[in-house]
Amino acid sequence: LLRHARLVLAQLDSLRGELAGARRGTVRLLANTAAATAWLPELLARFLARHPLLDLALEERPSRDVAEAVVSGAAPLGIAADHADLSGLESFPFRTDRLVVVAPPFHALARQGGLRFAELLGCDLVGLAGDSALQRHLAGHARRGGQAMRLRIQAQGPEVVCRMVALGAGLAILPEAVLRPGHGLAVLELREDWAERRLRLLARSLAALPEPARLLLDHLRQPATEPPGGASRDAVQERNHLPRGVRV
Fold first, then answer.
1. Which domain holds residue 141?
2. Is pLDDT at 223 greater than 90 in this prediction?
3. What is the pLDDT of residue 71?
4. 156: left (phi > 0), else alpha (psi -120 to 50), else beta?
5. Do 172 and 209 belong to one domain?
6. 246 falls within a domain
7. Phi and psi at residue 102, in whole multiples of 5°?
8. For the region Disordered, what residue ranges are annotated (predicted)?
């Protein structure tokens, strides 16, 4: 009986070790610019605090590249806009975002209700760095129209872009979710069907996800309780209800 009890205890210890091991490791997550810069910093920080044995590898990619990587098995999880080909994937709602035009309040176009993308291609623009998923996405739209973006400068991150726009370096196209109150910028509608994006969480097979990836997916699927970027809820609500062409 004692021998049998020791065998059972050894098996329990082994099982505990396997379960602990399942909650160790690094989870790779691919995401487009809006998700990576507006929502994921706070969400992923909370996840890491709750799971001290897990690490994360976040990579920013265009939505089409995110979907291709997940469907090929190169990454277990991704976040992409639904304009990408999501066939062969399981997907879940994440957030809704839209691209907007930001301008300094003294710009000649700052009081326009909105602009088409083709109209912007004749303007001086401030872009994100060339490896940015959003910048590659916008450059692709320009190429398909047989044109190129007139980029005066490319900056690292939306915050730097906004500061340069505010000082008159040019106009910019950014996800609305990354804008922060207090920039003193005019926000204009980007009048294109592709400007409105529904972001989706992607996995090739929910049932086949490793335990660490499943934990992250469950965390990211929780309903949003805070506005993007940690801005105050009142400030974000005020900004989102402002008519186009007014400062934020």
1. 98-196
2. no
3. 95
4. beta
5. no
6. no
7. -115, 140
8. 222-248
